[in-house]
Amino acid sequence: MGRASQALKQVLDTYGISQNQLAVTMGVERGSVFRWYHDKRDPTAETVVEIVEALKSLNFQAAEEFVQLYLGSVLKNKR
Predict the structure, then answer these.
(1) How many other CB atoms are there within 10 angstroms of residue 17's CB atom?
(2) CATH for 3-72, options being 3.30.930.10, 1.10.260.40, 3.30.300.330, 1.10.10.10
(3) Element (H or E) spanning 39, and its range?
């Protein structure tokens, strides 16, 4: 499972945010969120930013956790 899919799935499930809520907030079709959630397609870098922005408007902590799960390990262990 891809990192974006894992992070998105965990955050939506943990914070009780539906795929439809995220899709509506982002202004995309629910099928797009479904594909990211189920690891059928990876979101582009630009889309990841849009996901974070949408999550921020729904639940700021969810956005923070998504970023941590998706990118947090990138800076760790690189010293």
Answers:
(1) 18
(2) 1.10.260.40
(3) none
Question: What global pTM score does this model have?
Answer: 0.89
d(CA 23, CA 1): 21
Name 69's Cβ contacts closer than 8 Å, sequence gap at least 6.
Answer: 3, 6, 7, 10, 11
Taking only the tens place, the pLDDT of each residue in 1-28 is: 688 999 999 999 999 999 999 999 999 9
Q: Return left, alpha or beta for 42; rule: phi > 0 is left, psi -120 to 50 is alpha, else beta.
A: beta
- What tokens appear for 78 in the block? 């690189």
Residue 17's φ and ψ, nearest 5 degrees, are -95, 125
- List the structure tokens of 50: 């849009």
